[in-house]
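Archive record
______________

***
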Amino acid sequence: MPIRKNPLVRLKHAVSRSVGGVLESLKRSVSSIKKASRERTDRASRIAAQARKEKDEYHKKQHRIDEMRRRLLERKKIGQIKKRHKVERKRYNKKRFAQNLVKAGIDSTPEDAVRFILFSSVALTVVAAIGAFYYFMQDSLFNWVFGSFMLIMFASLGFGMAYGLMWLAYHQYLDMAIYRRRKEVEDVLADFLLLTSSNVRAGMTIDTALWNAVRPRFGVLAKEIEVVAKRTLSGEDLHTALHDFAESYNSPLLKRSISLLVEGLTAG
């Protein structure tokens, strides 16, 4: 006959099993919660890392864009500076060329001089091309073809060479004309100043003394002094007119003489 267990013992075992099941369930629940929490934390970390990476890439991209923009602005500024320097250089060359024309005694503008050089270059190119064509043109077909080739070559390449040669020749002519006029002024400058001083000692004013000292044999100097006198009579300051006259020639002797004359006028 089986032994019956005490109801309290059975109850105790039943409660132990229930509590054990509950604890096991709680452990599994806690483990699952921790696992889910770790997964959420890892996912959040991955999302944050991806966000930081995208943010860094965005900042790098913006930095590259800003750098490219800065370089473009610098290139634009450099281009503007170069363009401005080019314009200033062109204006300076034009002004210097105009001054050389005045110093050479040529009554012409830079535009007229450029047109003259251009037309002369075209004429020289045409003459050279026609001469080469007739020189190489003979009865044979080869010479006809070769003569046509020389005509085209002279027409296309000869103009640049002719234009450069004409500019070189024109500048050489200007240098010779400037030197010749400077020598003509310096050769008669001493006689002119001697006559001027004699007129001043005779009681004339300096502008009248300059005007009366002009002689036809003074040539270029006589014309320049006439211009100075006319500018003075029209109301312009004598010092300014004499200074402009001295600056129109690359002559240290003339500049020194005019400087002493102006100092004498200032001193009375």
In short: The radius of gyration is 50 Å. The helical segments are 7-103, 110-136, 141-201, 206-212, 220-233, 238-247, 252-267. The mean pLDDT is 78.
